[in-house]
Sequence to fold (417 residues):
Amino acid sequence: MLTQMPRGTKDILPEDVGEWLYVENKIRSICRLFGFQEIRTPMFEHTELFQRGIGDTTDVVEKEMYTFSDRSGRSITLRPENTASAVRAYLEHKLYAESNLVKLFYIGSMFRFDRPQRGRFREFHQFGVEAIGEMNPSVDAEIIILATRFLQSLGLKDLKLSINSVGCPNCRPKYREELKAFFKDKVSEMCDDCRSRYDRNPMRLLDCKVEHDQELAVGAPEITDCLCEECHDHFEKVKEYLTLAGIPFEVDPRLVRGLDYYTKTAFEIKYEPLGAQSAVAGGGRYDGLVEEIGGAPTPAVGFACGLERVMLAIETQHLYEAKPENPDVFVVALGDEAKKVAFPLIMKLRDAGIAAQMDYGGRSMKSQMKQANKSGARHAVIIGEDEVKENAVMLRDMSSSEQEKVSLADVISKLKN
RNA sequence: GCGGGUGUGGUGAAGUGGUUAACACACUGGAUUGUGGCUCCAGCAUGCGUGGGUUCGAUCCCCACCACUCGCCCCA
Fold:
């Protein structure tokens, strides 16, 4: 169908653009307050960047990427997320040379070939933040605070912040083994999904929704008990800083991140009324990514926030009201001679900063007055034969219905009064 | 990728195996000479997601596909 957009995509129509601008303005002002600078990276990258950065065995890379060969035969992928690109740009342009902590944010389209549903699209928009170059846990806390402040600045209520630590290459493997040992005798009676999780991502065994599996998971070791000293201390500090900043949170030992690059801190902000797709923002620390992509070992933290989901939340809480952008003046011209006066007049009005509209079709006065009314313009400027002769216009206040004849030369100053 | 629900004009929505597919809103035009918002009148789906099939005949029955939607998976 020519007149049908691809599945999972969405047109943002003029009536919706105001809400997007509203949200984007909030993002930019919060980021300015926190000292993050905007970066815009390409919508597509070499496929290998995502394979390396996100992880070959993740769902995103295995089955959700929009990958194709360009005309030169290079494998190209539409970005499924922006962190890998941001880090690539950080390395490529040697941003580390400017400062030992680089704070970036982005807003843009991401692409994942997923089954669409409420709050999940194939092309969707994320706002995200990356702080590259500092391992201090106060940066983790700052990122989390930025995310909550952003959502709060929109007036959102009932958000739930969960945090966890997923450990590091020193302690996570040990934990995985402990988990596997715990489930070893139980996998056989668990659901199909869990049986594949056992090998792929044992941490997922903990948050299976199947009731029987949940029972089996009771008493499983928790990662927070298995962290190495460094990770443990780091996590404690993050919690301390959050508490100092007065940010309420909940530790969820079963919170896992889907992308391979996460280490230590992981967090998620949910708005539960959204249903299945209730995660509004998620992120964490990824100390291994920069090195993975070819840079020097560099610690980093970040998060991403799904803007469609944010807007769904805004809509369910009625936090945004679109205000129509009305013209200041609607010019009504009766007949060809009048139009010869009206047409240059709307240009002059616009030059003077007055938003002016008119009817182009030479319709009846009644019809033009209806349009003037519907346009919401405060004033109508009416030009008929008499006015043309007199070099004047009829200036009508649409709400009071009062009108007066004004010389053509005075219209602009009258309107500006 | 898997499972459930839905699909009638711009919108909301009635409806039936067989003459002109209700109604409301919106939209367009009109109701004495150059004036809007109220009221009145008129117009507005040769078509009932798309393509097949069953039938003398289907928008209403069957199949496939597409889209939307809810859940699973995953994630923002």
Remarks:
- Chain A has 15 helices and 16 strands.
- The mean pLDDT of chain A is 91.
- Chain A has two domains: 14-171+227-316, 329-416.
- The longest helix of chain A spans residues 14-34.
